[in-house]
Specification:
single chain, 267 residues, mainly alpha, 11 helices, 73% helix
Amino acid sequence: MTARVTPAANRWADLKPRLLSALVMIGIGAVEIWLGGWWFLLLITLLTAVMIWELARLTAPDAKAAALAIAAVAAACLLADEGWPSVSAWLVFPLVPLVFLITPRRVQRVSAALSVAILVAGHGLFVLRDEQGTAAMLWLLGVVVVSDVMGYFAGRILAGPKFWPAISPKKTWSGTVAGWLGAAGLGLWFVQQGYGSLWLVALSPMVAFAGQMGDIAESWLKRRVGAKDSSHLIPGHGGVMDRFDALVGAMVLVMLLTRIFPLPIGG
């Protein structure tokens, strides 16, 4: 006799693989952040290249060799910029969106813009760890993770009106607001630990919102190209871009804000 799957049970069907995959990623990330330097750069380069590969595959699924080539170019650009400071990002990074623009694919301009965001995020993560310190890096990751976790549970428990149903049908206002509150609470915790000023409490929900917009941008892209996931590399999460799209959005905002004022966290 086949067991009947209730809607409540189905709602949490992806929780176990998501948790297991998350624990593995957290473990690897913690070691790499602690090591810093070239070890951290290699991890960031790998993640960036894989996301560029997924983006290329989503927008031109038949051009498999071209997707690998674009990913290789992205990795080379990031390594050149971070490993050899004399090489300017302004000289090497435009190569990647240029390839997206001149090769046949769907949503060319959007994919080129997203490739820029991914490269900026990869560059920003390395700079944040290298210049601002471990606390700033952990704060950023914490904001993204806490807002995602709070949004996941609040959205499934409280449900309610959808945030943007035409693009992201699973995202609710309850989950979105819960993510902002969780991010603010994390910012306050860092302030209490002596790692930042009270401005961090206000900044954290803004960064969480940017992360949520990164998630929505990828959802829009997948709907346009008719894909459910960016790939199937991470059990329970889909692809690397599915897991780190929010981090890309958050990091891009942080990079923009650091051009205006110093981050209210360090150490």
